[in-house]
Amino acid sequence: MTGAAESNLSQRQHAVSALLGSIPDVRWFSHTKKTLESCYQHAHLFGYLNPLRATPIQIVDQAAMEWIFRMNDSELRNSPCFDANYCVAIIMCEGLEPNPNVVDICIEHDIALLKSTLPSGETLDYLQGRLPQLLSPRCNKHGVFLAVMNTGVMITGVSGVGKSEVALDLIQRGHQLIADDVVDIYRRDGAELFGECSPTLKGYLEIRGLGIINIEKMFGPASVLDNYKLQLIINLRDATNSEIRNLDRLQPSLENSEILDLKVPTLNMLVAPGRNLSVLVEAATRDHLLRMSGVDSSLEFIHQHDLIMGVEGTDELETSDKKVQHRVDS
Amino acid sequence: MIERDIEVVNKLGLHARAASKLVKLTAGFSSTIKLISREQEVDAKSIMGILMLAATQGTTLKLTVDGEDEVKAADAVAALFADYFGEGE
């Protein structure tokens, strides 16, 4: 999908300046419009300035500086370290000052040039620590993201179903808000999803009739978190009568949602008058935690009942997964 | 499904009160209405999402409308943008 590719491109573009701008005590000499897209596949995104093995982001220390001083202008221009197609940024460390011709070349070749007082080793460590989060695959989802009993729960559903109201109730009960309405989700280490809030909206919640309220000020700093691991999605749905009648009363309506190629357990919860949603979300979270520790309340009950009845577990009472397994086996 | 590019023409951009007007309008339609600005896709029925876009004057947003009343909804949203959100500039 071209849309997705484009989105990744601008995110990475944003990431370059966000990453470099966040280096402590940094000063910019030139900026770049380049992205890391083309070089993202390379194993080494950054390293010391080295004409034998140039990297997109290069660190200049005393030794590299001496090499720069030895080269004349045209040698520098033609060096792979200042290649206009490849090099994205050069960071002068240890408070080194770039000489004027280096600044000129960087401006001409659209290379970001920065200086920092940080030692070169620490700058490398800093980049290593920050880069994975900034360059990780991202997307955003419509929903409210909360930490309920130390579990990252995203509440989704169409506009007006009551997501924010449930969130307010949960915050009142001592759980923490991460993001309202737009949840920025990123994948970390290829295996975990994390959700965070866009800086514009952080700590705010919109409630119909109350407008936009400042949760952090109203409930204290402990009521808001920066980011959290996404573990469960609860999808609120306005129930029609026939849906309520046809609901499986024995087991939760669980399925998997796919976000950034990872599966997230998703519970469909019907909204109807008289259902206390925040209590239901809490109970669903507790049930999820139990299930993750190997206890499935519904199944356990069914098995216990079967034992009392003296029957073997019948096919229709088993989970769909087991049914599939049965079919595969036979 | 209707897809259309719309430009933010008013001086102050998609600021808080403009966003409020937009949400009031979109909430009246049953279609799913989305606004996309660069990588961000948000629900045009939710004020927080729209505010997050922080779209300034001159920004081009992609509008997608999907549902029974999509034609009416897309026209109404485009008209509101073109009318400077009723702010006159």
Keywords:
heterodimer, A: about 325 residues, alpha/beta, 6-stranded mixed beta sheet, 11 helices, about 25% strand, elongated, disordered N terminus, B: 4-stranded antiparallel beta sheet, 3 helices
Textual characterization of the structure:
The complex is a heterodimer of chains A (330) and B (89). Chain A is built from eleven helices and 17 strands. The longest helix of chain A is centred in the N-terminal third of the chain and has 20 residues, at 2-21. In chain A, the strands form four sheets. Chain A has a six-stranded mixed beta sheet with strand order 9-7-8-15-17-16. In chain A, strands 1-5-4-3-2 form a five-stranded mixed beta sheet. Chain A is of the alpha/beta class. Chain B is an alpha+beta fold and 89 residues long. Chain B has a four-stranded antiparallel beta sheet, with helices on one face. In chain B, a hairpin with a 2-residue loop joins strand 2 and strand 3. The radius of gyration of chain B is 11 Å and the shape is globular. The termini of chain B are far apart. The model of chain B has no long low-confidence stretch (mean pLDDT 91). The chains are: A alpha/beta (330), B alpha+beta (89). Chain A binds chain B through residues 6-8, 10-11, 138, 140, 142, 159-160, 180-182, 198, 200-201, 204, 206, 212, and chain B through 27, 38-43, 45-49, 51-52, 54.
Number of helices of chain A: 11
Sketch the major β-sheet of chain A. 6 strands, mixed
User: For the CA atoms, what is the radius of gyration of chain B?
Assistant: 11 Å
- Measure the end-to-end span of chain B: 31 Å
Number of continuous helical runs of chain B: 3
Oligomer: heterodimer
Strand content of chain B: 25-35%
Point out poorly predicted stretches of chain A: 1-9, 315-330
Compute the gyration radius of chain A: what is it?
Answer: 27 Å
**Shape type of chain A:** elongated
- Outline the biggest β-sheet of chain B: 4 strands, antiparallel
Number of strands of chain B: 4
Strand order of the largest sheet of chain A: 9-7-8-15-17-16
Mean pLDDT of chain B: 91
Strands of chain A, count: 17
